[in-house]
Amino acid sequence: MHFRDWVTATEKNDASSGHVMEYMWHIIFVMDAVFCPDEHLCYCAVYGRCK
Fold first, then answer.
1. Could you tell me which InterPro entries the record lists for this protein (predicted)?
2. For residue 20, what pLDDT is reported?
3. What is the pTM of this model?
4. How many CB atoms are located within 10 Å of the residue 39 CB?
5. What is the rounded CA–CA span in Å between residue 17 and residue 22?
6. Where are the domains positioned within the chain?
7. 16 or 34: whose pLDDT is higher?
């Protein structure tokens, strides 16, 4: 609830608040961060979308 309230109350625009949440999700959900140096390698390793 705290994070939802922050998103709805912040004066940041949607893109900026979205970026904050993208960078914080692993902390919010107590998970390890995922480092993706290359977009295609990341999609393959994380989502199994290997083309």
1. DUF3431
2. 87
3. 0.49
4. 8
5. 9
6. 2-47
7. 16
Which amino acid type is present at position 36? C
C-alpha–C-alpha distance, residues 13 and 17, integer Å = 6
Give Cβ neighbours of residue 42 (< 8 Å, ≥ 6 apart).
34, 36
3-state secondary structure the chain: CHHHHHHHHCCCCHHHHHHHHHHHHHHHCCCCCCCCCCHHHHHHHHHCCCC
Q: Please, what is the end-to-end C-alpha distance for the chain in angstroms? A: 38
pLDDT digit string, tens, across residues 17-47 = 888 888 887 777 787 777 767 888 888 888 8
